[in-house]
Amino acid sequence: MAETTLKVVPQADLKNVDPVWTTAAITQNHGYMVYDMLFSMDSKLQPQPQMVDSWKTSDDGLTWSFTLRDGLLFHDGSPVESKDAIASIKRWSVKRADGQALMTRVKEIVAVDAKTFEIRLEKPFGPMLSVLANPTLPLPVMREEEAQTDPNTQVTTIIGSGPFVFDDKAWVPGDRVVYRKFKDYKPRSEPVDGFSGGKVAKVDTVEWIYIPDTNTATQALMSGEVDAYEIPPLDLMPMLKADPNITVKVLDTLGKMGHIRPNHLYPPFNDVRARQALQLLVDQREFLAAQVGNPEFETVCYAVFMCNSALESEAHAEPWMKPNPEKAKELLAAAGYNFKDPIVVMLPTDQQIIYNNILVMVGKLKEIGVNVDAQAMDWSSLTSRRAKTDDPNTDPKVGWHIFPTWWTGVPMSSPLTNAPLVSTGDPKTAWFGWPKDDEIERLRAAFMDAGTKEEQMKIVDALQKRFYEFIPYLNTGQFVTPVAWRNTLKGVPNALLFVAWNIEKTE
């Protein structure tokens, strides 16, 4: 039987391969290919066991015991054991908002035997399974050797236990990434459902083919040169929908939130007045028109925890919904900004949605007299540079003041998982931009103890109020991005993103 190759145009070029070190979506997608997780979310966003076979909780809620499935192997042939899971949990939790929340309650994590480990708590932690099943910043189980790497240093040896093996010898940054079927992978017996169930590799090879020009990538899909396009350009969506050979589908119905992040460490955006100035330049309708340009896929949303989510609230947002450039200029001046000083803005030229988003902000800044140093680069270069804490005022080629991105709505929709809301100010625990605000941290901690929906919403409203007082980041509008694939593909899982397992390729 001839070998089959699934060819996908990914959303970006893959340069960073450690899904713990970075939150870049392309690296998380890479993580799903190579690694397996202890738990995974089904299509209803309910946690289901993945590598775990069975688990139990003590009556007082302080001890959680987990036993791994039989037959789990890493790609080098070594068995997956408790020590690997424990080291992976500890490393991941340093970099993830919900992992950090969990570790504030953890007394110790210990191996009972080679397949069973316990998480012992100082205080009960109700969302344990949901945290271990984080769907968008998942917990990849690495070998203990790699998982003992400092989480602020990239792992470079990529050996997982998932359904595909990363072929590092065939990887050509800027061109393609290659994955091979792991023939010794033992899938679960349950049918695939979202990210959960049996991950059956039905193709022999998966190739991510990087095509930065969206028109070229769209034509490659329509001609059959590639089989799928992860984030096709929304302005070409009518043409793709009209093609009888192509399926266009929104997999993540909650969607994404456009996002602009200022650097809190250095002037001028270490001053809240400068960040408030940025907020007063945002008209979400304008930003959405540029970054999406199709009302079918757009939602104006000033809710910190997403619109159409369980914790939706626009409390205290109204004063910030209307742009005021004159006031923005006054606030920047009051913050001590000299309008001759360059503001370094990173522009990811190969990410159409984000690129169009930041171009609007660049235009708004220039309109009020800001000296914008707009530096063009590809997305992978941006995701590497945003981790640097150098002062952009003294080293504008290394440091930065502002960068754009988008966040998947699921983690953004809770104080527990909203990573850019973490305001510890510590580059080791806070997300790039490094805000520091004790009140936000106090409210996030209180949310963990909220026992009822009413109590949760009181904290959400308080967080909304503090968010717009402090401005840790800017939301530029909510949107969905359909995935497109040729009808020769069968069995595409109904996960939040396009994953390669269970897909059959027919001719």
Automatic annotation (TrEMBL):
> Could you tell me the keywords of this UniProt record?
Signal
Under the heading CDD domains, the entry gives: PBP2_NikA_DppA_OppA_like_16
- Where in or outside the cell? Periplasm
A single GO CC term, please?
A: outer membrane-bounded periplasmic space
What would be an example GO MF term here?
Answer: peptide transmembrane transporter activity
Q: Does Disulfide bond count among this protein's keywords?
A: no
A GO biological process of this protein is:
peptide transport
Tell me the domain of life.
Bacteria
Domain Solute-binding protein family residue range list: 46-415
Family assignment? Belongs to the bacterial solute-binding protein 5 family.
| Record-linked PANTHER family | D,D-DIPEPTIDE-BINDING PERIPLASMIC PROTEIN DDPA-RELATED (PTHR30290:SF38), PERIPLASMIC BINDING COMPONENT OF ABC TRANSPORTER (PTHR30290)
Name it: ABC transporter substrate-binding protein
Q: Which organism is it from?
A: Thalassobaculum fulvum
